[in-house]
Specification:
single chain; 514 residues; mainly alpha; 2 domains; 3-stranded antiparallel sheet; 21 helices; 3 strands; 74% helix; 3% strand; globular
Length: 514
Amino acid sequence: MSQNRLLKGVDWLVLILGLMIVTFGIMNVYSVNQDLGIKQIIWFGLGLVMILALMIMSGNNRNFFEVYSPVFYIISVVLLVGVLIFGKEINGAKAWYRFGSFSLQPAEFAKIGTSLLLANLINHFNASFKDFNFLGKLLIVIIIPIALILLQPDLGSVIIFCSLSIAFYREGLNPWIIISPIVLLVIFLISIVQIPFYVLLFFGFILLLSVLLILVITNERDVKEAMYGSLVGLSIFFLLLILACFLVQNLPEKMRESFGYLFPMRSLFFSEPIFFNTVFFGLFGFFISIIPVLIDKLTEQKETSSSPFKKQSGLIANVFSLSIIVSFVVLLIASSVSFISPIIFEKLPKHQKERVIVLYEGEAKYRDTSGYNLLYAKTAIGSGELYGKGYQQGTIKKGRFVPEQQTDYIFTAVGEEWGFIGSTALVLVYAVFIARLYYIAEKQGNRFARFYGYSVASILFFHFFINIAMVVGLFPTVGIPLPFFSYGGSSLWGFTILIGIFLIIHYKNNQGLI
């Protein structure tokens, strides 16, 4: 009976799946480099010792990690500041402490401290995402580590912090606050290789179709008024886009040269067919946007003139006016991002620009520079075919053609030696593992544990998804390891502590229910 009580709260599925991933990861690191494989076993063993130490420190205190979350956060920030002063520069980034042959990357631990403190704030300050003061506190907590990591610079770790948006959404953050930056990022990336006018026309028509669809399926008057206001905003947007097109087309020659310098990737100045298309589709979008509004308002005037009981309320009028302003501001921001993106892109270092352009133009064109890793990564994975070449039999791996194959590109070893079946099995194990963490997080009885659990699962999901997408050419090359799989003491410790803390919290919460 006492033994059953002691084991209550232990999630065996997470432990078994996690151990499977770590074991398979060590096997593949060993296959790439035997010395590093042995070291990886040592790093994992030390990680387990750290978890044991945290269990002892927390004792019987169910709220240990909640109470001391500010301490974890402060330590992580101090480590980030210190690495800028005392850190060792590796591959152009000052992101590691160097102790002999051992390196420590504090950004891996900043994710833990930030997640814990955010969970604390959400649980203790009567969190309301409509309260701007509260949102400001959350923003400060996130911005401090992000700013310090950008100074290193380490773009990959910064991207991972975006995963916390999933946990925020679960706790009630408006989804548009999360979706909007993603949409702006897509506009930014597309505008790098396409004429901004075309990008904005496409974006405008996507919004137009969405608004018209909502108008068709809804019967609520306030929602309809918001959509009609959005249509007015869209009509103004299309007219301004046409006006901008005319202005750019008729700029003096000297100004054309200046703008041509600012937009070297995709010039704003275009041939007559493109100019005609922009004006034609802009006018088409304007009329499609404004006609439903005119019909509705004319119909409404007839109704209100025949009966005093059908007059539009002040609230409905405010919804209409506010939606015009909001939609126009959103479109204005999107336009600014589209036109500015070529300028920003041109200021990036050459290797970073090539990493992005490789996604559009293919790795073969840049096979001697930024496309080299991706070219041989795809070659290695494809050569494994269905069943793979067998453990430690990868010829491309043995030839050391793929740089960093033991870290960021470890999945190429899986694809080559274990084939499609082995790769698929690994992806499925990861999927079940992460899904189980989300499930456990949802079952938590307090916001601290739930938010932290969602943060843990989301951080792992972003690492997993981006790493695989990067290796197969669906995402630019960034330094993001595959969780529990890629070689490295810092990342392995970071992931072990990240999940270990959550499992300890889950265990203590279940023990407290007995």
